[in-house]
Amino acid sequence: MDQLLAMRAFLRVVEAGSFTRAADSLDMPNATMSKLVKELEAHLGVRLLQRTTRRLTVTSEGEDYYAKATRILRDLEVVDSSFNVARRNPSGKLRIDVGGSTARDVLIPMLPDFIDRYPDIHMELGVSDRAVDMISDNVDCVIRGGPLDSSSLIARNIGQATMITCATPGYLKRYGIPAYPDELKNGHRLISYISTQDGRAVPFRFERNNQKTEIKVEHQFGVNESNAHLAASVAGLGIVQTFSYAARSALEDGALLEILKEWRPSPYPFHVVYPQNRFVTHRLRVFIDWLVECFPAGVGRGLEKV
C-alpha cells in the first residue's frame, strides 16, 4: 500500500463527501479510491468511514485520523515546497472560480500578463455567479465581491469596485429620470439581481453624505447572473444597479446612462478566498500576489469615463 496516496485519498473523500467526487477531483478511478481507503483501514485496524447506499459518515476514529493526517500532509508539502520554490518556477494546475462579469471585464483581460509571467501554470477557470464548494469542487480559490460569511475560509482583500445605477435613454425618456432614490418606488421598473446563495433579490443601495438607504420593491424582472443582469438593462427592461466596470462599454457608446450619481453606494469590496485547511501551493501563492497587484487596476480601468 502507498500510505501517502491512501492518506490523500481518505482526506479527499472526507472533504468531498463522496467517493465519486473525490475520485474525480484526483483524476482517479472510483474503484481505486475505494481500494486505497479500505487498505488504509486494514493497515490501521479501525473503521474510518461508515458506508451505506445513501450516506457516507466519518467515524470518530476517522475524524481523529483526518485531523492528524491533515497536519502531516501539510507539513510534508511545506518541506517539499521549501526546496522546490528555490529551484524552479511555479507549475501545475490551478482551478479558479469567478463571477461572470468579473471574469469578462476584469480577470480575463489581465490574464495574458499572468500567463507570460508563469507559463508553467495551467489554469482552469470556472465562470459563474453560484456559490462554490471549494472542497468538493476541488477549486483552489474563488474571486468574489461583497461580505464574507464563512469562518472556514481565508480571504484576502484585492480591491473594490464602484456600483452605479443606470438605464437606457429610451427607458428614461418614457419613465423619467429619478432625482432621488425614493422615486424608484413610483412606477419605475427595476431589474433585480437574484442572489444564488439565498434566492433573494439584492436591494438597490444608495448613499450620500453618510446617509444610507435601501430600495426594496417588487421587481419587474430578476436574474441571477451578472452578464445577463446587465444585458436586461441594455435591452430596455428597466433600471439596473451594477459594477461600473461591467457597464463601461454600454456607458461609453450611449446604450446606458448613469442616474443618481450623487447617491452611489459605498465601494464594493472584492476578495480572493481559499480554504483555511488547505496548503497554499507556490502556484496559488503567486496567483494571489499577482491579483493583489493587478486587480485594482483592472477594476478601475477607464472609470474616469463613467
Count of domain modules? 3
Say what the CATH topology of the largest domain is. D-Maltodextrin-Binding Protein, domain 2
State the major sheet.
Answer: 5 strands, mixed
Global morphology: elongated
Report strand %.
15-25%
Order of helices and strands: HHHEEHEHEEEEHEEEEHEHEEH
Overall average pLDDT: 86
Specify Rg, calculated over alpha carbons. 24 Å
Q: Uncertain spans, ≥5 residues at pLDDT below 50?
A: 302-306
Based on secondary structure, the structural category is: alpha/beta
Tell me the span between the first and last alpha carbons. Answer: 62 Å
Assigned CATH class of the largest domain: Alpha Beta
Number of helices: 9
Estimate percent helicity.
40-55%
Strand order of the largest sheet: 4-3-5-14-6
CATH superfamily of the largest domain: Periplasmic binding protein-like II
CATH architecture of the largest domain: 3-Layer(aba) Sandwich
Please give the number of β-strands: 14
Tell me about this structure:
By secondary structure, this protein is α/β, with parallel strands linked by helices. The protein folds into 3 domains: about 5-85, Orthogonal Bundle (Arc Repressor Mutant, subunit A), CATH 1.10.10.10; about 90-160 and about 270-305, D-Maltodextrin-Binding Protein, domain 2; about 165-265, Periplasmic binding protein-like II (D-Maltodextrin-Binding Protein, domain 2). About 40% of the residues lie in helices and about 25% in strands. The chain contains 9 helices and 14 strands. A 5-stranded mixed sheet has the order 4-3-5-14-6, with helices on one face. The longest helix has 28 residues, at about 60-85. The chain is elongated and about 75 Å long. It starts with a helix and ends in a 6-residue tail after the last helix. The model is unreliable at about 300-305 (pLDDT under 50).
